[in-house]
């Protein structure tokens, strides 16, 4: 048990798929894993472990934002001997070059956040994915004939803002979309010498206001889920 996860040691796999939403974790466990076991539900943040093609894989939520994923990823890496976390989330596109349901595999997360600075004395605005799981995801996408573009992401503390302009940092680092967790996940993994990747599905196109429904955010993310599971399977 850790402070925020009540699973017993050994109840969580070396590889964890991590959506923001606890109900997405439940959906994945119930629809993609064999014999899923609920191993933690502290604070309603569900963690499940089950079999995917004969190998144990865990899926559990990060919650939203850097503080939340900072806590869950740190405890998974340090208290459950997790080697690899694959965040599977949604993002808002800053450009109409991306369409809803497009898949992206994140190379670097750019952020104005002070999370990495105050947690780990890392001063960089740009935090790279960690380890070889990013490459495994790219190879796996090719094998599955899935178009998962590699790009940078703006990782932001902010969902609602006054100024509708694309934030400066997103332009500076060529980020076509925004989400709220990858930077802290990559920083934790970098500090701890672990593996971390982030795959995102475009849920909103900010300039046009097009978006997918809350139900679809939970369930209509099948290509991303299959890509993450197939990549995770190769690591255990
Ligand atoms: O779909 P998830 O993984 O929660 O990711 C995105 O959705 C949430 C905002 O709606 C933020 O957590 C953002 O990063
Ligand atoms: O962080 C996010 C996620 C989805 N859509 C957004 O606009 N922002």
UniProtKB/TrEMBL annotation:
Keywords: Glycosyltransferase, Transferase. It holds the Pfam family PNP_UDP_1. One of its GO terms (cellular component) is cytosol. Its EC number is 2.4.2.3. It catalyses: uridine + phosphate = alpha-D-ribose 1-phosphate + uracil. The keyword Translocase does not apply. It is an enzyme of class 2 (transferase). Transmembrane segments: none annotated. Residues 14-208 form the Nucleoside phosphorylase domain. GO terms for biological process: purine nucleoside catabolic process. InterPro entries: DeoD-type, Nucleoside_phosphorylase_d, Nucleoside_phosphorylase_sf. GO terms for molecular function: purine-nucleoside phosphorylase activity; uridine phosphorylase activity. SUPFAM superfamilies: Purine and uridine phosphorylases (SSF53167). This is Uridine phosphorylase.
